[in-house]
Each structure stands twice: as C-alpha cells, then as structure tokens.
Amino acid sequence: NLSELLDHPEVDCVLVATEPERHLKLALYALQRGKHTLIEKPLSSDLDGAVHFLTEIRNHKFVCSVVSQKRFDPNLLLMKQEIEKWQNEPNFITLEDFRFRDQNYYEAGSGWRKHGSHYFLNQGIHWLDVILWFFGKPVSVDALPVPNRRSLDCSDRSIAILRWGNGSVASIMGGSFSRS
Prior knowledge:
Blueprint lengths: L1 H6 L5 E4 L6 H10 L3 E4 L7 H11 L6 E3 L7 H12 L6 E9 L2 H5 L4 H5 L2 H4 L1 H12 L4 E7 L10 E7 L5 E9 L3
Parallel strand pairs: 1-2, 2-3, 4-7
Antiparallel strand pairs: 5-6, 6-7
C-alpha cells in the first residue's frame, strides 16, 4: 500500500521510476507526505502538467529533482574541470548520440516510448543536461525533430542548436537506428 509505505517513519525519500505519465502525480504525492523525491527522466511529456507541478512544489521544504546521473561520471567531471578553465572563450561544441533500439524497446511496458519517446525526452535529456551543466543557460535553443520510423508516433531523432551570450554554439544530434 503506497500510503502505508509513505507514512512509514523510516522512509525519508522516494525514487519515482514508473512510466513517465505517472511521474508527476506520484512525485507530488510523495512530497505532500513529507518525502524527498527523485524522479526518473523525463519529468513529464506534458508541458502544462510540468509547469503546474513546479508551481505546486515551489513551497515544499523537501528536495525534489530529476535524475541527472551523468553529472557523477568521473570522465565528465574531469571534462567539466578542463572546460571551466576556458569558460569565457567562445566555443563550438558538437555532440552526437546514436544508439541501436529494436522495436521491442518501443513496445515494452505501457508502450510510452512508442508514443512519447522523443529523443530529448528519453535519451537526449541526459546529454542536454551535460551541456547545460558544462556551459550554463543558453540564450537560445532551436530544435528539429526528424522522423525515422513509421512504427512510432513520435520522432526518435532530433538535432538542437544552443547559443550562449559569449558566442559559444553547441549542436546536439541524436536518436536511434534499427538493423532492418
């Protein structure tokens, strides 16, 4: 029983790792029960729902965050240290992330990946977070989804261009491919 579990005095925190369409409801419930909450990505595929959630939790005293595990990768930590040495210089950053995904990957569970697994909501969110962690908030972001599988209701390939005030530019290109 979720209520009993969240009311247990030895439970301090909750990891929400369900299908994405349930993230916001479960995370808000855990926060309202006084638990620190970590949410598996994506926070939500519903922008209005995410904005409402952020408004609701703004006054909670408990920690709530979305998983950003790449920030703990030792190689990326070293890269960040090096990048910080030349942070004010204009940079051109290119990141490519393509991976094999068979049709079973998209059909598993409730099938959310088939309907809402846009690259930047599923895998690309990790690399977008790394770029923001390395370089800070950009002044503009342009993204273009690229359809690549007729069997999906979403585009699982995308490209994004980010620009910063110091003249730096980043391109992130990624998605999945199949061996058909």
